[in-house]
Amino acid sequence: MQVSSLNEVKIYSLSAGRSLPEWLSDRKKRALQKKDVDIRRRIELIQDFEMPTISTKIKVSRDGQYIMAVGTYKPRIRCFDTYQLSQKFERCLDSEVVTFEILSDDYSKIVFLQCDRFVEFHSQHGHYYRTRIPKFGRDFSYHYPSCDLYFVAASSEVYRLNLEQGRFLNSLQTDASENNVCDINPTHFLFAAGTAEGKVECWDPRTRNRVGLLDCALSSVTADTEIDGLPSISALKFNGALNMAVGTSTGQVLLYDLRSSNPLIVKDHQYGLPIKSIQFQHQLDLIISADSRIIKMWNKDTGKIFTSMEPEHDINDVCLYPNSGMLMTANEAPKIYIYYMPVLGPAPKWCSFLDNLTEELEENPESTVYDDYKFVTRKDLENLGLAHLIGSSLLRAYMHGFFMDIRLYHKAKMMANPFAYEEYRREKIRQKIEETRAQRVQLKKLPKVNKELALKLIEEEEEQQAARKRKQKNLPSLLKDDRFKVMFENPDFQVDEQSEEFRLLNPLVSKISEKRKKKLKILEEKEAQKQEEEEEPEGKPSDAESSESSDDEKDWVEEVRKQRKLLRQEEKVKRQERFKEDQQTLLKPQFFEIKEGEEFRSFKDSAKKQKLMKKTLGDRLKLEEKLGTLTVSDTTVGSKQATFKLKKSEQQKKQQEAEKQHRQERKTLRRSAGHLKSKRGRGQRFH
């Protein structure tokens, strides 16, 4: 049994621990219980209180004796008898159950709404009758005064099935495209249906007329909430004659007074998941709302969180056992979880021993003192050979590991690694040897790229070494930093000291760099000597170092002027060299070939063509439309029609001009021939 506490509310998980497979024999189960500590310490209120794969819905009969759960796979219903603490019966079904309702006080009358549009009725002996509704059903409610079943489905109609007459009655026509959930008030029997548009329609079953409409989607949107789509109604529950709670698909719970169209409280689960279930707890005036991830309990007057639970698996349904502090959940797992909270109420009569257990645990609380305790993970326990102690009183589970006595930890470590002291002694000796080696003269290993910059950084580190020892602060080194590692490896990052920017910005660096170059030469000579003769003594003093003189006292302005003069002289020399090269070079003519049918205009036209080819198709179409070579028009169907005018080559233009001239000549010849014929006719008539 696991115990958790949130807001000083203790929650006892009665389903914690491993479950045994069904195919094991009783003898093997008893043997496993003797060997396994987890199985022996678990509490099994009801024997085999689980489903083969998942459980979708769970309900309690009105007399409190039977707990019924539906699940898969295969689709089935299991009835558990609380008086016998075992399973009463199991029935397999043809298709999965969307929801079900217990019509009688016991298990003798049950109605199932299945996913294939069938409504199945079961009696005490088993299957009784089966019928079908026009659309795929999503929820239904039973109206006791008239014996009517109200079905909401993926349509705008609410189907009514009268169980006394055994026939369908006239449907209720709603304004919604689809209806998701429904409920009937137990006091005045008002029927409410939640729609996919985020509205709740209330109907009077006596007159079959709509008496109210609530726009919950608009009311659920507040300044703090972020909603992606239109909230639809996913849960609905009445409380008394005047209160109603509505759950949305975006994770909000709205509490309404039926006399007002505005909600009293809007509670956001902050997960953005659809609300699966809403329950009312009357003793403490709490609302228990659940989505697929979390169960929240909050005060219906103030909205303040009372406590919350997050099971390991996704939640499908929540059932509160009447007049008690027991809560059961149907999950995406074989187990049906049972939680007990003494604050909500006493334990049910059939498991009254839970009160004694919880009282003993509260009277004798274990001390939570962590002095003289060592925190170890499961891997540490395996290395020490203490993995078999998991579950015993020697280890206290905490977060991702365990707390154990420090004395036991030291004993186990000595037994697991008896040579730990020898390793510690060797490590200390090695550290002492390294300290003595550090006092010797060591050669500085410089990188291949930016050697002068690396030498500068080393000198600065040596100057600040004394100050660091006083302040006892270890500052990071740029040479060892991975962020600047490439600067001393990649030749592309080499500093160009001959550039104009470097010489003008750092006029005094040149003098200091001369000293560093001398040091670099000395270090390179020492490295070469070390490679050739390894037996020679290290670090001989050089005459070059003793003869160094510091010229840093010169004026900075004079250095800048000198650098500028040098740069001007270098520019003059470069100009003269370029002028000589230009005089020596002779320009050679270049020849270009023109395709047939094309006329050379200028080099600018070819550049324009290249730029035009680089543009997108849309830009080219716009340009051609401006030039008049393209026309875009709308058709009667609603589409676009584009007409292109192809550019003609010079040959085509010449051919067209020749054809026009030929046609004109033929016309003139025809006209002259007709004129001669008319003259001849006149002369014959005259003769």
Automatic annotation (TrEMBL):
Main location: nucleus
InterPro entries: Beta-prop_NOL10_N, NOL10/Enp2, NOL10_2nd, NUC153, WD40/YVTN_repeat-like_dom_sf, WD40_repeat_dom_sf, WD40_rpt
Record keywords: Coiled coil, Nucleus, Repeat, WD repeat
Keyword Coiled coil attributed: yes
Annotated Gene Ontology cellular component terms: 90S preribosome; small-subunit processome
Biased composition range(s): Basic residues: 663-687
UniProt feature, compositional bias: Basic and acidic residues: 647-662
Acidic residues composition-biased segments: 545-556
Coiled-coil segments on the chain, per record: 426-470
Entry keyword tRNA processing: no
A Pfam family matched in the record: NOL10_2nd
Nucleolar protein 10-like second domain span: 369-417
Family from the record: Belongs to the WD repeat NOL10/ENP2 family.
Name this polypeptide is given: Nucleolar protein 10
Organism: Crypturellus undulatus
Gene expressing this chain: Nol10
